[in-house]
Write a structure and sequence with these properties.
Elements: H1 5-12, H2 19-29, H3 32-44, H4 53-63, H5 75-90, H6 94-99, H7 113-126, E1 136-141, E2 151-158, E3 161-171, H8 178-187, E4 192-201, E5 204-212, E6 216-217, H9 218-226, H10 230-260, E7 263-264, E8 273-276, E9 286-289, E10 295-296, E11 303-305, H11 312-316, H12 323-326, H13 328-335, E12 341-343, H14 344-358, H15 374-384, H16 389-398, H17 409-413
Antiparallel strand pairs: 1-2, 2-3, 3-5, 4-5, 6-8, 7-10, 8-9, 11-12
């Protein structure tokens, strides 16, 4: 039987399909190397939503046990299918989870890395309540769904009541990284409510990620300060530096934790940073970073292929992009590096420092990442940050134009 989209769909759309039935189809009908390419393409196609949840989980489990599972030629396909399966598991309701609970953990007579992760993910999800997939009536959006907003306030209605929440917005037709979902589940606060994919607005596919209701975004915090008179700003500058320092500390810890999860954010902007009211453990508000690329990191030393500034949203927010991203070709010529390589670690460090500096000033902000603006940027930092030497050091070293000498998050945390 040829592994055509039609044959795949005819078998895999069955919502009652058993593991044994998927195994029989897999082993008797499709060559093992062929199925990876076909399944990968199929999962990315428009029909992928018609594959039953348990069929996808079973087939992902089966293909993972082939002898050349981690061969280089199959790595990208394997990673994609694993992420697709794991993401669906983590965002499934408990009824669907029970349908795949009887997988043979030692098939075929030996455990695998995939099997262990599959089992761990399944256990994590069983003990976590996701309001968006359990007994929901509707989601009501209290603000317009626009990518420029970064986040909107919503209300999630259930039979038993209503939960006020926030939804971060990202233009994407890709599944979220499974590790990103695990990270949100283990975060604890703010509470993670779930993800809705494929929301189409003006022919663009959006992904919404839901959390506890925030107080304001960092962008709103910046805007409200910038409209004040110079006199009032000067009077508040000392206090402003205190919470700018604390905000940086909180976000650096979080981004360093991303690294430990094998994730890189790559989308650090003030409208992606949510501010929550302080709790009993601190007098300072809590800040959290959401809605990024959250790209799963696979290559050594944090270096991977560069990205293009090609969306309208990127162009509007270019001031928060590191120089090597905002002006990639010119940057590569100036510092003699390969234009297809950069480091998420140091690029994210620049973006976070720019957001924190923006809390203190908007002076020439559109020029901060300019390749010939380093000296002027240093003058801005030195003239503003007079009350906190550690904050000054962090900003100066993080906003270095040369990415090779830029301060990394783990290095910055030593200063606290």
């Amino acid at each position: 039987m040829a592994a055509t989209p039609e044959t795949l769909l005819s078998v895999l759309s069955n919502i009652e399909i058993t593991f044994q039935e998927v195994e029989a189809f897999y082993t008797s009908s499709i060559a093992i190397n062929d199925v990876r390419v076909k399944l990968s393409c199929f999962l990315k196609s428009a029909d992928s939503s018609r594959i039953s949840f348990q069929a996808k989980a079973h087939l992902g489990f089966l293909f993972s046990h082939s002898p050349d599972r981690y061969a280089d030629k199959d790595r990208d396909i394997a990673d994609y299918i694993e992420n697709a399966v794991f993401s669906d598991i983590l965002l499934a309701n408990h009824n669907d989870l029970e349908k795949i609970s009887q997988l043979p953990m030692n098939w075929p007579n030996h455990p695998s890395k995939y099997t262990e992760e599959f089992s761990n993910y399944l256990d994590i999800r069983r003990f976590y309540q996701l309001p968006l997939v359990e007994n929901i009536n509707q989601v009501r959006y209290l603000e317009e769904l626009k990518i420029d907003n970064g986040v909107v306030r919503v209300e999630i209605d259930f039979q038993s009541g209503t939960i006020p929440a926030s939804a971060t917005i990202r233009a994407s037709d890709q599944k979220p990284a499974a590790r990103e979902i695990i990270y949100y589940m283990q975060k604890g606060y703010p509470k993670f409510y779930g993800i809705i994919t494929n929301i189409i607005i003006q022919d663009v596919s959006y992904r919404l990620t839901f959390f506890d209701r925030h107080k304001e975004t960092l962008k709103q915090c910046i805007s409200s300060f910038n409209v004040l008179s110079k006199k009032v700003k000067d009077e508040r500058m000392k206090e402003r530096q205190i919470f700018a320092f604390d905000y940086y500390h909180q976000l650096a810890i979080e981004l360093n934790s991303y690294r430990e999860f094998g994730l890189f954010h790559n989308c650090i902007r003030p409208n992606n940073i949510l501010i929550y009211n302080n709790d009993q453990t601190s007098n300072v508000d809590k800040v959290f970073l959401f809605n990024g690329e959250c790209i799963q990191f696979k290559l050594a030393y944090g270096v991977t292929e560069g990205i293009l500034v090609n969306s309208e949203f990127d162009r509007k927010n270019k001031r928060y992009l590191a120089p090597e991203i905002a002006y990639k070709q010119e940057y590569c010529k100036k510092y003699s590096i390969n234009e297809n390589e950069f480091s998420y670690n140091v690029s994210d460090a620049w973006s976070l420092a720019a957001c924190i500096l923006n809390l203190l000033t908007d002076q020439n902000a559109d020029k901060w990442n300019g390749l010939n603006f380093t000296e002027s940027l240093n003058k801005i930092v030195n003239s503003l940050v007079k009350e906190n030497d550690k904050l000054k050091e962090i900003l100066l070293r993080s906003l270095e134009n040369n990415m090779q000498s830029r301060l990394k998050f783990n290095e910055a945390l030593v200063l606290f």
